[in-house]
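Input record, target 12 of the design panel.
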């Protein structure tokens, strides 16, 4: 039981759970989807809570979300459909994914903060959110990926800062 209910775990839960609840409620009140901010937090944990990876997460995430914008507002309607027609829409999406993943592979060594696994993760999440997400009327004229990108850059950075602060407090309190 000591591996579960110890000072470190209990203190982390006591601070992290309210942070998540506050973020969820605030985003809900603002009528914004929570997933961009929560994916930043999960990505931070997957990056073993290394503050140095914050730029890779939020900037890569922004590239992924903006790629959804390019796919849905530029590539498919302006390039793919005029050439191949509506029946080839799925093929166009697959081609775009292949191009995007190719860019990540090619540019990872040159622009790692922008082209990385986080970019692809946020792109995939964005493609799922594209059909279901809504935003407040004030932002309704903006393409969804621009809203997500703002959330990722601002909210994602803030939630990672909160998690970093919690980690520092827990470490100081427990000596671990």
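The sequence produced for target 12 reads:
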């Amino acid at each position: 039981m000591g591996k579960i209910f110890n000072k470190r775990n209990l203190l982390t839960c006591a601070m992290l759970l309210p942070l998540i609840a506050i973020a969820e409620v605030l985003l809900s009140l603002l009528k914004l989807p929570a997933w961009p901010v929560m994916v930043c937090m999960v990505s931070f944990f997957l990056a073993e809570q290394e503050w140095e990876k914050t730029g890779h997460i939020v900037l890569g995430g922004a590239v992924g979300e903006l790629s959804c914008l390019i796919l849905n507002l530029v590539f498919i309607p302006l390039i793919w459909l005029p050439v191949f027609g509506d029946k080839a829409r799925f093929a166009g999406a697959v081609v775009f994914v292949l191009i995007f993943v190719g860019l990540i592979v090619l540019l990872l060594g040159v622009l790692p903060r922008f082209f990385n696994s986080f970019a692809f993760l946020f792109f995939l999440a964005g493609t799922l959110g594209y059909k279901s997400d809504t935003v407040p009327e004030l932002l309704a004229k903006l393409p969804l990926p621009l809203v997500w990108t703002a959330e990722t850059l601002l909210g994602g950075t803030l939630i990672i800062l909160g998690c970093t602060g919690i980690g520092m407090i827990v470490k100081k309190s427990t000596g671990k």
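The two ends are 19 Å apart (CA to CA).
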